[in-house]
Design a protein that fits this description.
The protein is mainly α and about 425 residues long. It folds into 2 domains: about 375 residues, no CATH class; about 35 residues, no CATH class. It contains 14 helices and 4 strands. Helix 7 runs antiparallel to helix 8 and helix 11 packs across helix 12.
């Protein structure tokens, strides 16, 4: 075995990625603090214990409950070898789509019918779990094909996996999740090896569609709230009585934090005075910027970047295409959520209602992101250690041909013999 082969074999060994888990829970803990800060009740003494301030905040206390319960989800997802998810991906996908259809009949909240009302005032949002279902279904379908979208039939099959839940979600009035689904699809087919013509064609179709819808809205004089969000992004000063106010106030709150921030649970702060609408959910980054300032924001963004780079590293040394694409899908979901949320709160992107992973309030969103990271941990823990062949995705050592030729190569795990052995055996 050469030095390079030995290094690849070492890095592809299965292990439980503790650093990734710790980074996730660092963000989850910060989320509880910032949500509690955004909904801080000044009747509680500033000198009161931190736990009292969290308990006094309805949203903060519920987020803490979700956070405390989340290790159960991590344990459950990681304990099942990820190859078994291949068998249940289709069932999970159909169940989620059915939930998306049924929720259309529920009462709308802010023009969106996307939540089931549960006990104790809690709500369940199936469009969040649709992202996980799409990741698993796309990974399942592309894993057995070294060249996805090589034919029109294959391309149509992959596009329909995303189009069905996306169209139902759009009918609910929830455009933000649809954009995330599209981003997951595009990044997964890019890393999955789709032809550049398909990648370019889909990008052009998306651009033409957005421009057409936007232009029609302006010409027709539509008062659709999604159109107003785009117009307010272009010139927020013209829409200070609607969507533009949220952008301007968010920028002011973030700017007021300066270099080091004004601190947590400060009476009279923008967060405490509800200066920024939804500053504990979609616009929680405004609370972050005010409380911990520029340096704190840099630290949090660094945590996100390290998580994304860690996932890229794990995907690089995962030679099972199904597991590799699961990691890529989760990475795509987190990357787009972080980019879009932070960009919209500082005025660099239109408002889309996309939450900040692990920090924005919401049990469905937190659970979805925890499941996503748990799937990555699962792949890293249960992947098969193989001898890499640099001309293929997966190579199985020991299956040599006659006359000293190279080992037989199986491009996908689905093509391998049922009994596989690792380098350590």
């Amino acid at each position: 075995m050469t030095t390079i082969e030995h290094e690849h074999a070492r890095r592809s060994k299965p292990f439980f990625d503790v650093p990734l888990l710790l980074m996730m829970y660092a963000l989850v803990t910060l989320g509880v603090l910032f949500i509690s800060t955004a909904t801080y009740n000044p009747s509680i003494s500033v000198d009161a214990p931190l736990i009292n301030k969290i308990i006094n905040s309805n949203t903060g206390s519920w987020q803490a409950i979700f956070a405390v319960a989340s290790p159960i989800v991590v344990w459950f997802v990681v304990s099942i070898p990820y190859e078994q998810f291949r068998n249940y991906a289709r069932l999970f996908y159909y169940v989620v789509v059915a939930l998306l259809v049924v929720v259309l009949g529920t009462s709308a909240i802010r023009n969106v019918s996307a939540w089931y009302q549960l006990a104790l005032g809690r709500m369940f949002q199936p469009s969040e779990f649709a992202k996980i279902a799409i990741i698993l279904m796309l990974a399942r379908n592309m894993a057995s094909n070294p060249k996805p979208m090589s034919t029109f039939k294959d391309a149509l099959r992959l596009m329909m996996i995303v189009a069905v839940p996306a169209l139902v979600t759009l009918a609910q009035g929830e455009a933000g999740s649809v954009i995330v689904m599209a981003a997951i699809f595009y990044i997964m087919i890019y890393f999955g090896g789709a032809n550049w013509k398909w990648l370019l064609g889909l990008l052009l179709v998306a651009i033409i569609g957005i421009v057409t819808i936007f232009g029609y809205g302006i010409i027709s004089g539509s008062d659709d709230y999604r159109l107003l969000r785009i117009l307010s992004f272009l010139d927020p000063s013209k829409y200070t009585q609607s969507a533009g106010l949220q952008i301007l106030n968010s920028q002011e709150a973030i700017g007021s934090g300066g270099l080091t921030g004004v601190g947590l649970f400060v009476v009279g702060s923008h967060s405490q005075l509800d200066f920024v609408p939804e500053d504990w959910t979609d616009f929680v980054f405004a609370t972050v910027g005010e409380a911990v300032g520029f340096l704190g924001c840099v630290l949090i963004v660094t945590l996100y970047v390290l998580m994304i780079l860690r996932m890229l590293y794990l995907a690089r040394y995962t030679f099972d295409k199904f597991g590799q694409l699961i990691i890529i899908g989760v990475m795509a979901m987190l990357f787009f959520h972080v980019f879009q949320n932070i960009a919209m709160t500082i005025g660099l992107m239109p408002i889309t209602g996309i939450p900040l992973p692990f920090i924005s309030y919401g049990g469905s969103n937190l659970l979805t992101n925890v499941i996503g990271v748990s799937l990555v941990l699962n792949v890293a823990k249960n992947r098969i250690t193989v001898m890499p062949n640099f001309s293929a995705t997966v190579a199985i050592p020991g299956k040599t041909r006659k006359r000293g030729k190279k080992a037989k190569v199986y491009v996908n795990v689905a093509d391998q013999p049922r009994k596989r052995r690792s380098l350590g055996k």
